[in-house]
Amino acid sequence: MMMDAESPIPVARLANRILSIGAERRQVRREWRERCGRAV
């Protein structure tokens, strides 16, 4: 979702950053699960 281009509102930008951080966290958790072999 490229909301940033349409609405340069700080709130939209903040939401975009939060979504990005959430995605990174999910990926990290998945990597840990693969490394440990269990659901963390």
Mean pLDDT: 80
N-end to C-end Cα span = 29 Å
Overall spatial form: rod-shaped
Largest sheet: none
Helix proportion of residues, in percent? Answer: over 70%
**Poorly predicted tracts of residues:** none
Per DSSP E runs of 2 or more residues, the count of β-strands stands at: 0
The topology string of helices and strands comes to HH
Number of domains: 1
- Strand-residue proportion: under 5%
The oligomeric state is single chain
Class computed from helices, strands and strand pairing: mainly alpha
Number of helices: 2
Radius of gyration: 14 Å
What does this structure look like?
This protein is mostly helical and 40 residues long. The protein has one domain. Helices cover 78% and strands 0% of the residues. The mean pLDDT is 80.
